[in-house]
Amino acid sequence: MKLTATESERRLQEEIRGFLAGERPDADRLPRPLADRMEALRAWQGRCYEAGYVGRAWPQEFGGGGAPAAEQIIIDQELAAAGAPEFANVVGLDVLGPSLLRFGDDEQRRRYIPPILAAEEIWCQGFSEPDAGSDLASLRTRADDRGDHFVISGQKTWVSWGQFARWCGVLARTHDAGPKHRGISMLIVDMRSPGVELRPMTQITGHAEFCELFLDDVVVPKENLLGGLGDGWKIAMHTLGHERGTAALPRQVKLRTWLDRAVRVAAERTVDGEPMIDDPGAQVALARAAIAVEVLRHHAYRTVGEFLNGGAVGPDSSSVKLLMAEAEQRLAATVLELLGPTIEHGEPGAADEDGFWHETYLYSRAASVYGGTQQIQRNIIADRVLGLPQE
Amino acid sequence: MDLELSDEQQWLSESVETLLAREAHTGRLWGSLVDFGALSVGGEDGLGAVEMCLIARALGAHLAPVPYVGSAAVRFAAGPPAADLGEHAVALAVLEPGASWAAPPALTVLETGPGGGAVSGRKTGVEHAAAVPRLAVVAAAPHGPALCVVEADAPAVACVPQLAFDPTAPMYAVELAGARLATEPLGADAIHRMATIGALLAAAEAVGAAGRMLEDACGYAAERRQFGRTIGSFQALRHLLADLYVRQASSWSSVLYAAATLDEDAGEAARTVSIAKAYVSRAAREVAHGAMQVFGGIAVTEEHPAHRFLRRIVVRERQFGDAAHHERALGRELASIAVPEAVS
Fold first, then answer.
1. Which positions ≥6 away from B195 have C-beta within 8 Å?
2. What is the residue range of A336's domain?
3. B219 lies within 8 A of chain A by CB
4. Which range is least confidently modeled, A62-66, A131-135, A223-227, A342-346?
5. A142: left (phi over 0), alpha (psi -120 to 50) or beta
6. Mutate to test the interface with A, among B2, B207, B326 (most CBs of A within 10 A)
7. What is the pTM of this model?
8. Partner B contacted by A178 (CB < 8 A)
C-alpha cells in the first residue's frame, strides 16, 4: 500500500510541471471553430509526444516510451491538473491503439501506432449503430468476404472526431450463423475510401464532435482485419474495459479542477448581498460534490492498483465507471443549482460568462451513457462480480 | 500508488476472520483478540491504521460485542505511552447530554489537587462502560480539553444503562464524582487523533456489517424463488444489488485510502477521514436498507439477523459524527480556503 509518490515519480512530476509552465496550455482558450480547434489539439499532442508524455508506457519499437503504466497515469493527472486540453487522438490513444497493441500483428502495429502517438493520423471508432446501442451485438453493418478484400455496408453513429479521422475501427458482421456476438469482426477502414460519408451531429452543447458514418460498399483489404475473423466482440469488450479502468484517475483530477472552480464561483458571487459560499446549504452541497469526487479517487486507486501490479482490468472497472458518472453529474448539477438564475443568461462579468458551466452541466448527462450505460455497468457487476442468476 | 494489501496485511485479515468465525460470540473473544495482538497499536512494530481497519471490518461483519473501537482508538491516540493501559479494554466517554460530537467538554472537568487529578461530570452514550476496567474521559481542564483515563469500577464512577439501539453495543450514562486518574492526562492533539481514528474505525465496522448484509442478500436472491424463477434473476433486484455493491466496495476503498493517509502521516489525513466517515455513514445504511428490501418481509422479523446488522450500522454511523456532521465541517473548510482573488 503506497499513496505518496516515490522519488522517481516525484522527479517525473516536477519535470512535467516544468514543461507545463513553459507551455501554459489552457483548454478554455482553444479556438471555437471546430477545424481550428482540431488543429490546435493536434499540435498540442505533437508537442507532448516530442516531450515524451504520450504513449509513455507503449512499446518502444512502435514509438512509445516503454515505461511502467504508472508513469502515464502520473503524466495524465498532471496534464489534467494544469487544465490542459485533451489530446486530439483520444480515440486512438484510449480505444483503438490499445486494441492494435493487444490484438494487431507486427505489421499493423508498425504501420498504425507511431502516427497515432504523434497525432499525424486521427482515429475514430465505428461501434454503435442507430439500432445497436447498448445491444451492440445486434449490429447490422456487414462486411462481405470477396476473396482478397471485404466490402462493408452499413451505418454507424457516435463517431467522435470522425470528420478529422484518417482511420476508423469498424465493428462489422462477417457471418450470421451462431451466437450473434461471435459473428462480428474488427476492420480498419481508410476514411478516404470511396463510399465513406460523414454527417456531423450537433450535440446539446452546440458542438459537433460526433458524426454519423455511412458506409456504402466500402472496399477494405484483407490485411486490415484486426485480430482473427469473429474476434471483434472480444476486442471491443477488452478495449472498453481498458478505457474504463485507466481513464478514471485523470478524469478524477479534471473533476477536482472543476470543483475548485465551483468553489471560486461560489466565493466570488453574492446573492442578496451575501457571499454565496457563506450559505451553509451551499457549503454542504459543495462538500457532497467534493466527497463524490474524492471517493472516486479512492476507489480508482484500489482498482487501478490491481491493474498496475500486473492484474487485468477486471469487472470492477464498472464500479469505477458508475462512480465517475455520479461524481461528474453531482458536481455539475450542484453548480447549476448554486448559480441559480444567472446560469440561464450568463450576464457580462458573471461567473459563467463563457458558458463553461452551461456546457459542463449539459454534457454531464452523457457521462452515464457513453462507454456503456449505467444499466449495462450494473449488468456487468450483477453477472461478473456478484454472480447473480442470469435474467 | 496503490491500495493493495501487503502479504502481512492479507494474512492478518484472514487470521482475524478465522478467529472471529470461531469465537465471535463466545466469552473468550476479548482475550483472544488481545493475544492476537489487536491492541498492539502504533510504534515501530505495532498495528497501523490499515491493520486496525481490517480488524474493525471483521468485527463489524461478525457483530462482535467487544469495545474494540474505543480500546484501539485511545491507544492509537496516546502512542507508545499507552503501554500503561496494559490489556485493559477501554470505553470512550466523549459525548455529553445535549451536545454534538464537535462540542468541547462543558459538563465534565478535570481538577488537579494535592492528591493528583480527578474527573467529575456527566457523559452519555458510553459504549460497554459497565464491562470495561477503564474509561477514557474527555474533560475540560485549565489549558484546554484533556483525555483522562480513570478506573471504571471506582466508587466515584456510576454507570446507568441506557436504551441501546444495538444491544451488542450496550450504552451507558456515566456520572463521575471525583474519579482519580489512572494515567497522565493527554492533551488536545491526542483527543483530535482519537476522534480521527475513532471515526475511521467506526466506518470500518460499518463497512464490515454492510458487506455481510450484501453477501447474505446476494445469496438469498440466488435461492429465493417467486414467479417460477430466482428473484436474483429479475433486473430490478440485479441492479439494486449492483448499486449496493458499488456503495459497499467504494466505502471500503475510502476507508483504506484514509487509513493509508494516517499511516503515511499525510497532511490531508484528518480531512480524508472526514470524507470517508461522511461517505460510509450514508452508504452503509443504504446497503442495509437495500439488503432488507431484497430479503423482504422475513427481514422485519426479530429472528432474522438483518436488524442486528442494521442496528450496528446505525450506531457506527452516528459515532464520532454522522454524514451531516462531517459534510458541514468539510463545507466550512471549503469556504474558508476559497478566499476570492482580487478581481482583475
1. B94, B101, B320
2. 234-385
3. no
4. A342-346
5. beta
6. B2
7. 0.94
8. no
